[in-house]
Design goal:
The chain is α/β, with parallel strands linked by helices. The protein contains five helices and nine strands, in the order ββββαββαβαβαβα.
Length: 241
């Protein structure tokens, strides 16, 4: 099992029928979902009924579990708000970089408790090969953007949104950090696909929220095509400074 998918609420159903496993790690339990006759495993960030808020997602357990079962390549799928009028509801944007404004989450495996201190390079946190493969499967060129990670579970204020846009952010979400950081610490090739479901506060006068099943299913079909193709999975690689 060398491929993994991490998704939010609404992404569990398309992967059924599936076998579930509670995988014990030094950082708690991770719930792994193995879709029938597929070469990948799925992890639901918020649990089946969206019972886990963003700041309490077991990020370290999820990534540790994926590494332990042999996963080396991972797609994250995130619902986000847009900081740009150009990326309206139901746009799909690939992550190119991130800005971290989270506050209370464990951000590393190398905290001295279970692993010795190491410093992971973050010049390219998102994997370009996985981004390109997703575009090819989707059949269209997609924009790249900077993901602004906030603590949640509240939404951001108008002043915060204005600030994030002014420093180069493109979309806002609550879950991609520390997920991307931990994936890179474990040497996983990781890319994150963002489904824009609304404009952020103050970007547009009218709030439009879309959770289009059509877009969600399009994303899933493309990810499935990448991972069920004849491509050769890569080995894990840790980039240390």
């Amino acid at each position: 099992m060398q491929y993994g998918i991490i998704g939010g609420t609404g992404f569990e159903a398309p992967f059924s029928p599936a076998k579930e496993e509670i995988f014990s790690t030094p950082y708690g339990d991770a719930k792994l979902i193995y879709p029938e006759n597929k070469p990948y495993v799925f992890v639901s960030r918020h649990g089946t009924d969206h019972t886990i808020p963003p700041h309490k997602v077991p990020y370290r357990a999820n990534i540790w579990a994926l590494k332990e079962i042999g996963v080396t390549e991972v797609y994250g799928i995130s619902a986000v708000g847009s900081l740009k009028k150009a990326y309206g509801p139901d746009s799909v944007v690939l992550c190119d970089d991130f800005l971290d404004f989270t506050k209370t989450r464990p951000h590393t495996f190398y905290d001295g408790d279970h692993e010795a201190a190491k410093h992971i390079a973050m010049a390219a946190p998102y994997d370009s090969e996985l981004n390109d493969a997703f575009e090819a499967a989707l059949g269209e060129k997609l924009p790249r953007g900077v993901y602004v990670a906030t603590e949640g579970p509240r939404f951001e204020s108008r002043a915060e949104i204005k600030f994030y846009a002014s420093i180069g952010g493109d979309m806002v979400g609550m879950t991609n950090v520390p997920e991307v950081v931990l994936a890179r610490e474990m040497g996983l090739h990781y890319a994150n696909i963002c489904h824009v479901i609304n404009y952020c506060t103050g970007v547009e006068d009218t709030m439009v929220i879309s959770k289009s099943e059509e877009v969600r299913n399009k994303i899933i079909r493309a990810v499935d095509e990448v991972f069920t193709s004849d491509r050769v999975p890569r080995e894990a690689r840790i980039d240390l400074l």
